[in-house]
Specification:
The complex is a heterodimer of chains A (192) and B (220).
Chain A lengths: L2 H10 L4 H8 L3 E5 L4 E3 L7 E7 L2 E6 L5 E7 L4 E2 L2 H6 L6 E4 L3 E7 H10 L1 H27 L2 H11 L1 H6 L2 H8 L3 H12 L2
Antiparallel strand pairs in A: 1-8, 2-7, 3-6, 3-8, 4-5, 4-7
Helix pairs in contact in A: 4-5, 6-9, 8-9
Chain B lengths: L4 E6 L4 H10 L4 E6 L3 H14 L4 E4 L3 H7 L2 E4 L3 H11 L7 E4 L19 H8 L4 E4 L6 H5 L2 E2 L2 E2 L1 E6 L2 H13 L3 E6 L4 H18 L13
Parallel strand pairs in B: 1-2, 1-4, 2-3, 4-5, 5-6, 9-10
Antiparallel strand pairs in B: 6-9, 7-8
The chains are: A alpha+beta (192), B alpha/beta (220).
Chain lengths: 192, 220
């Protein structure tokens, strides 16, 4: 049930079977069906979720109720309202399932205990957060300095699975564009 | 909490299981009902929807699947059946709240089958070492769920467990069911709670309370 979770973990830092068994005790298996919420804005986010199977998105709603997607998560990715998880303040994002999904949750209390008990879990967490920080910086740079065509081209190169599995209007929202603008960009790219 | 919690009720067709399911269908919960007799579960869902058309309730044909989807698992099965169910759902119940409602009564209702130094809840915790077992609803009769106010007083419902956050979550659930939640202590307090219900059952038989009886702690 935790195959992908441990495969990804072991890619970052190799675990002994004993360490793996110890970590397993702290994991929560959770199945979520399409359109169900994992988290709603206003609640405290009490877990990080690793996607074994399926797809989720994280978004906020603006004053007119438009969705602003900040992240997608497919197999092998982790998703959480990290600010809320780490500070205990209420979440500013919604997280819901775009497909039927199988998740591995790590609750706040399990996370804290694992940090104390398994040194490699701390390393894993550091590598995950460093990776997320770098990805965020890249996304920021791309928003500031690349043209829309360049941004979309690099998105489809980096995340071909998302393009296949996620509706276009959600990708537009992720890129901060109106769906019509994204359609125009796609036409321009395909006519080249 | 805004995010809907999913609750699996295993043994939903029994008198306690169906009473709990009915009362929790009023709350912001998604209920997954499992029972060996699936026909009874479907009838129950029909009855719940007739009263509460917006109720988010669904019949499940597998207790393992129900536990996998659940955030909270309620074992509404007799004490004798808990071991077998626990073994089946153990992996899916990892780190989750599992509510033990059972009273380990003997066949003549005049004693408990558990040793004095343990309880049904503690035995369940041994079977599910990585779950957060909470004792709840064992001091309430099934009839109390439709009438949680007896003689003008809201019945107390005692809760015991070792995890503070889980106790808080279950206290909210008990309040949704219409009772006044009272945290009795850690999981070993279940020994007292299970004996309290033994006493209430015995008094009920002796004085013919007709199952409409409950506990209320009087205090200043």
């Amino acid at each position: 049930m935790y195959e992908l979770f441990f495969r990804e973990f072991n890619k970052k830092i190799a675990l002994t079977p004993e360490e793996q068994d110890l970590i397993k005790k702290y994991l929560t298996p959770k199945k979520l069906r399409k359109k169900q919420y994992l988290l709603q804005e206003g609640d405290v986010c009490k877990f990080v979720a690793f996607v074994e199977k399926g797809a989720l998105r994280q978004y906020s709603l603006d004053e007119s109720g438009n969705e602003r997607i900040i992240q997608f998560a497919l197999e092998g990715w982790t998703i959480s309202d990290l600010y809320s998880f780490l500070t205990g303040e209420t979440a500013t994002y919604h997280i819901d399932a775009l497909e039927d999904s199988e998740l591995v949750l790590i609750s706040k209390s399990a996370h804290e205990e694992l940090l104390q008990k398994v040194a490699k879990y701390e390393t894993y967490t550091r590598l995950k957060i460093t990776g997320a920080y770098i990805a965020m910086q890249k996304r920021l740079t791309s928003i500031i300095s690349s043209s829309l065509e360049e941004r979309y081209s690099s998105f489809i190169t980096l995340y071909p699975d998302i393009v296949q599995r996620v509706p276009q209007h959600m990708i537009a929202s992720y890129m901060g564009l109106q769906p019509e603008t994204l359609s125009r960009i796609r036409r321009r790219i395909s006519s080249r | 909490m805004k995010t809907k919690q999913t609750i699996a009720v295993i043994g939903a067709a029994g008198s306690m299981g169906s009473a709990i399911s009915r009362s929790l269908s009023k709350g912001n919960y998604r209920l997954l009902l499992y029972a060996n007799q699936q026909e009874k579960t479907r009838t129950l869902i029909g009855q719940i929807k007739a009263v509460q058309p917006s109720a988010d309730v669904e019949a499940m044909d597998c207790k393992v699947q129900a536990s996998w989807e659940a955030d909270i698992i309620i074992l509404a099965v007799p004490f004798e059946a808990e071991k077998e169910v626990a073994e089946k759902i153990r992996e899916m119940a990892n780190q989750k709240i599992v509510i033990s409602i059972s009273n380990p009564l003997n066949s003549s209702y005049d004693g408990l089958v558990t040793r004095p130094d343990t309880s049904a809840a503690e035995e369940l915790q041994k079977l599910l070492p990585n779950s957060k077992v909470i004792k709840a609803f064992n001091t309430s009769f099934a009839a109390n769920f439709s009438t949680p106010v007896i003689d003008g007083k809201q019945a107390d419902a005692f809760i015991a467990g070792n995890d503070d956050e889980a106790l808080q979550t279950v206290a909210e659930l008990v309040a949704v069911a219409g009772f006044n939640p009272v945290v009795a202590g850690d999981l070993s307090a279940s020994r007292i709670l299970e004996n309290m219900q033994l006493l209430l059952i015995r008094l009920g038989m002796k004085y013919n309370y007709n199952w409409l009886a409950g506990w209320k702690i009087l205090h200043n």
